[in-house]
Every structure is written in structure tokens, then in C-alpha cells.
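Cross-posting from the modeling subforum.

Setting up a comparison between two proteins and wanted a second pair of eyes on the formatting. Protein 1 (sequence, then C-alpha cells):
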Amino acid sequence: MWVWTLFLALVILFLALDLGVFHKEDHVVKSKEAGIWTAIWVSVALGFSGVIYWLFSNGMVDNPTGLTPDKAVLKYITGYLIELSLSIDNVFVIAVIFSSFKIPALYQHRVLFWGILGAIVFRGLTILFGVALITKFDWIIYVFGVFLLWTAFKMLKGGDDDFDPKNSFVFRQVKKIYPITGNIQGNRFFVRKMGIKAATPLFVALVIIELTDILFALDSIPAILAITSNPFIVFSSNILAILGLRSMYFLVSRMLEKFRFINYSLVVILAFVGLKMLFSHQIELPEWLSLVVISLALIAGVVASLLIPEKNIEPTE
């Protein structure tokens, strides 16, 4: 239990340093700064694989499936890459939300910070629930597998292009609870107008981002559970990927048009882990194969986006 406590304390320390020291003053996060922070978060996450090795070498975490330290590290890195890659799709949606509510770049980091806090709590509950289901009901892995294949199929077809946060169910419900101001009021989530508490666009954007993250968790958690059901590996890989989501957003959101084929990478990843779940009792794949497939899918999407020129459609006379 102390391992979980220390890990959560470490996450809280990271968040406190982030908002209380490094981003104490609201400012526009430039691409260079975002790139540096992305590199830092990725380095921290990959460096944590050494902690995973040490913990499993000394039997300091529950290990019901008897993972060796080497296998534990492979599963952790694979789970981290899955969550990181699926977070790219989350970046697209966050960009649409910020654009729809005209959230200035000056305040976007603050909104994402509080969104991350809520995401950590919900991910913890989802992981706990998912691991318990797989442990108690062996057949649930087939349900997760079919769900991931369906998600991959929907992503391949598209259909999220018309997403409009201002016409969403969440926005309509928030309006029923609080009046919504039409203007940004600094970095405040609530203001008082004529004695009435009203929500600013920052709060509405935060709520919608929070709830869309819940929907994304329904994809990412089963995907990681396809790799391992060890709760500490699933939780730590997931949370460390989420911690780097903010800096990755400011880095990737400005290059969305360049990564035109990254969605196909996500389709391949989701389809692969879905099939792995469906055939988990018939075929046992080596630990390194999942890592290789996921890495190659991401690399192929990025390389194809950079090398294949975008077709320009000439206007007709």
C-alpha cells in the first residue's frame, strides 16, 4: 500500500510544482516550451520503468500473475505508449473545444491543469473497476475486445468532424444550472453578475473536456488491460501519460494538419489490442511484439504524414 501512497504523493508533487512554481503566472505556452516539457514528461515516464523493474524485483507490489521484472517493464512501456498514442485523438477534441468557446491561449494551460486533476481521479476508479471485472469475470475480456474493434471501426469511418461543443448535451445541462457569461473574465471560472453566480466560458470548456476525457478513458483503459491486468502498471502508465498531455497538447495542436495519417495509426493500435483480447485464450503473443506493433504504427503514421504530399484540388472554372 505504501507504494501506491508514494506514487500518488509524487503525482501531487508534480502537479503542485507545475501550477504553483513553473506556471504560477498565466502565459501563452510557446512551441519551444511545450517541446521541452513534453520531453521532460516522456523522460520521467520512461525513467519510471526503472522503478517498475526495482519494485517487481523486490516483490514490493502485488503480482498475482507472477510477472518477471523484465516483463513488467515491457508491459509498462507498452501501456504507456498506448495511452500516449490514444491521447493524440484527445488533443483534436480539446482543440475544437477551445476554439468553439474562444478560450485565449493565455488561459488554456490553467483549464487543462484542472481537467487533469479530475481525469486522474476518474481514471483511478475506472482502472479499479476494470481490473476487478477482468479478475472476477474472465469472459469480460471478450466484451472489451469487441468494444475496441468497434471503436477502431468508428474511428476509421470518421464522424467526429461535426462535433460542436456549443450544441452538446453537456453545454445545455450546464446552462440549466448556471447562467453562462459570453465573455472571458480573466482566468476565473465563475463571476457574479448582479448578485447571480454565473459560469464563464473557461468553466464550460473545463466541464466538457472533463466529460470527453471520460469517454476517451472507455477506450484507453480496456486497451491497456489487453496488455496487463496488474493494477499498479495500468495505473502508473496511464497517469504518467496523462500528466504529459497538457504539454503535448500545446506541441501537437499546432501541427494537427501535418499529422494527417495519425488517425490510421490509432485505428491499427485499437484493432490490434482488440484482436489480442479476443484471442487471448488461444494465442499468447510475446511481450515485445505488442510494443513493436504499437511503435511501428505510430512511426508509420508520422512518417506517412510528413512524406506523402497533400493533394491540392484545383478549383474548377
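Protein 2 (same layout):
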Amino acid sequence: MPKASQSKLLAAEGQAAVEIPKRNSLLAKMSRDKYLLLLCVPGLLYFLIFKYLPMWGVLLAFKNYQPYIGFFESEWVGFANFKQLFQDPIFFKLMRNTLLLGFYDMVFFFPAPIVLALLLNEVRISLYKRLIQTIIYVPHFISMVILASISYLLLTTEGGVVNEMLFSLTGQRFDFLTSENWFRPVIIGQSLWKEVGWGTIIFLAALAGVDQEQYEAAIVDGANRFRQVWHITLPAIRGTIIVLLILRMGNFLDRGFEQVLLMSNALNRPVAEVFDTYVYALGITQGAFSYSTAVGLFKAIIGIILVFTSNYLAKRAGHSGIF
């Protein structure tokens, strides 16, 4: 046999010998970790049943769905529902209200857990730190209905505690619950009180992994506490901040349906109407299932675009991003 043919045969046998152990190795690993893989089954079923299968329903956005006819027999209308949405005069008001709430959320709410986590990280008495953490975690477990009721009792002009205090100081009462100017501050204030403590959990976990020797070296170099936070603490959790920021951009147009619905009324509705409440009003109360699905799909597409854009910008800035 010629040497060239012999070398090719040996190379093919060697390649086959390499491929077989790899395949066997994968099966061996799966067999070895079968109980761990079994633990993944409930999570996979959850995402399959509640996340992926419902995505079939987005086809309603391209149909004129009639419940008495059924999903498959309803007429295909293409992009007619989207055209109706963009031509609706209320579309720009919905977009404006939703974007403003999203902007205020990013400016005021997103940095708040970071600042609070940095402050808690400076507390050296363990018992005192745990007590503060417990207190600020509790509002997360309060129902939004209860929070709206508390807000009403505090802010109403008819005997509200806050309004009574302001009246004793300034001689006037403020329409926190009915004024268009106060609606967005009240919504952001509620979000801060309810979720800012819970949001510190991830950042405190990231801060726990910061190398303490860096602080010792900074102290030797004469750095004060502010310099230590600026040059050591913040860079150490920068990756966590960027990942959470990218994920939050996906929910930029999700403004908390329950909260906005409970706090809106006839007097502040011009600034309180957002996509979430609009979908509820059309899809549930008026039965416009196809049109409301188109609105929801529009929101989802915008969220995907924002996630990919922010992830791209993060990578261009030298960070890892989320994918």
C-alpha cells in the first residue's frame, strides 16, 4: 500500500477514534449527572408551558379574531391591526406617557438600589445592618392594592396624614391623587418605597465578592472612603450593574399595569393612560383581542430592540454584555 494511502487511512482511523470517545463521553456525563438533569425538568416544563407555548397566541395580532368562530377559522388581516394602532390619535399619548414613566424609572429608581447597597456596605455593625435589611425588604411583600390604599390614606386631601402635615406647615393642601402634575412623582415614589430595598440583594451579593485587600492597599495609599468606593467598589460591581441595566431595558415599556390602574382616575387619566392599561381596556372590557394582542406584540418588539441595542453598546464600551 502506498505511503500516502496508508497515512490517510491512519488519519481516518484516528479521527474516528477521537469522535467515538467524545460521543461516549457526552453520554457518560449525561448518565453520571442524570439526577441533576432531572432537577432541570420542572424548570424546562415551566418555560415550555408558560413562556413558549403562549407565544403561539401572537398570531392573533394578524387576525380578526372572533371567539365564536375560533382561532383557526378567524380571518387573516395581516398588519391591519398595527396600522390601526399607529393611526390611532391616542397612540402618541400612550407612547409619551409610557416613555416618560420609563425615563423617570431609569433616572430615579434604577440607581437607588445601587446607592442603598453602597450605604449598607459601609455599615460595620452586623446586627444593625441585618435589622435595616429586614426593614427595607418588607415592603416588597406588600400587595400593590394595599400600597394604593396606604397611599390614599396618606395623600388624600380629606384628612390624609401627609396633606394635614403640609397644611399645618404651608396653609394649603395638595392634590397628589388627582393632579396630573403629581401622578408620575407618586408612581415613582411608590416604586422606590416598595422595591428599592429588595433591589439591593443582588448588589450586596456582588459587593460581598470584592477583594478586601484592595481596600487595605487603598488605605495605605491614603484613600478616603469616597475614593475607595469610587475606585474599588463601583468598578467591582460594574459588570452586575450593566447586566441588570440591559435586562431592565427589555421592560422599558412595561410600566406596572396594576399600579397605574389603581392610581389612575378620571382627573389624572390624560397622563396615566399607558400601553398596559390601554390593552386591558380594549382586550378585556371591549373584547378587541386581536388589536390588544397587536399592541402587546409592538411592546415586545420594542423591548427586544432595546435589549439588543443596549447589549451592543455595552460590548462596544468594552463590557461583556449578556450574550
